[in-house]
Structure formats: C-alpha cells, structure tokens
Amino acid sequence: MQKYIIEHLEPKISKWCLIEYENISKIVGKKDLIFTNIKKNSDKKKIIKLGKVYKESISQLKLNNVCILDPESKAILTPEDKKTFDYFVFGGILGDYPPKKRTKKELTRFFPRNTATRNIGKKQMSTDNAVYTVKKILEGNQFKNLPFKYKISIPISKLSSVELPYQYNLVGGKPFMSPKVIEYLKRKKGF
C-alpha distances in angstroms, 177 versus 30, 105, 154, 160, 183? Predict the structure, then answer.
C-alpha cells in the first residue's frame, strides 16, 4: 500500500494549511498519510489526528522506493509507478504566484541525485489537489485523462471575489476544494 508524505515547508501550520491537511487525510486516510518536518509541538498537536507525524525531514528517514512529486521533473507520473514506489512525497507549500520552484529548492535538492521524481503537469496545484491527482493516477487513470480547471474565482461578497491561480481537479464538474477554504476566504480580511 502506497504512503503519502507531506514534507511541511512553511514556518508554521497556518489555518489554510490545516484545512488542506485535513482534506488530504480524508482523501487517502489517516493510516496512509505521513507528515514530516513538523518542528513545533503546537503544530504536531494540530495534525496528530490526521496521520503519522515526524519531527525529522523526509530526507533523514532513509526510506526506500521514494518518489518526489516535483513540477520541475521531466517524467510524468503514470499508473505503472504504483509498482515501483512505496512513498510519494509532496512539498507542504502554500503556493506563490508566479511559482518560485520551491519544491525543487526546499525539498528535491536535499535528496541524492538518483532519487526518482515525477510531475503531475506543469501547473501549480494546492497540496490537497496534488495528492488527489496522484491517488487518481495510482488508481489507474492517466494524467491526460483527468479533468482540471485552471484558475478559479471564489465569490467572497456581493461585490468581490478572490482568484486562485492554480489548477484544480474537477469532480462532478466542480473544482475540488474543501468547503472550509471558501469559508476561510470569506472570513479573511485583506489579501
């Protein structure tokens, strides 16, 4: 059974991060989810019910059959990769626009050069959407056959909306997103 590893790369677990991590736990299940690089006990307490938590970075755990999901990878993830890899590693990063290639800078470069990497397209996704995409591919779907919507607009009042410049899976014709993100955006003051 494949394990999904989130290498947390933000200074703390923000509310938005926590919402995505909760959604990831629902997508893959607590027993198949691992969080690494959780330095603060206060952050560990926030996510311990969502999956296994390590203070150490993934690069220190000496795991075999690891695949890093990096948009800069030249190889795209395929259903056949399920036979090769036991661990799929994602950078727990809140996205920047335009992207700053943080996965490569803050995660991939700390592994030996021969560590396998794969991409799931070149467009930036939220971490929960990236996990959802990988799960769908490992279930037998080709990336090119998965439906996506790039850039979505979330109405936050009668007069304003927030544009999220990322790629989202379409599930039942709607962008895949935790309803908690929409509530968070509506409550957030200033962007």
Answer: 19, 27, 11, 19, 11
